[in-house]
Amino acid sequence: MDPSAPLLFGLTVAEFEDISLKLCVGGLIAYMIFIIGQLAFESKAGKYGAIWMFVGLGVGFIGFAAKSIIQRLLGIE
Question: Which domain holds residue 35?
Answer without folding.
Answer: 13-74
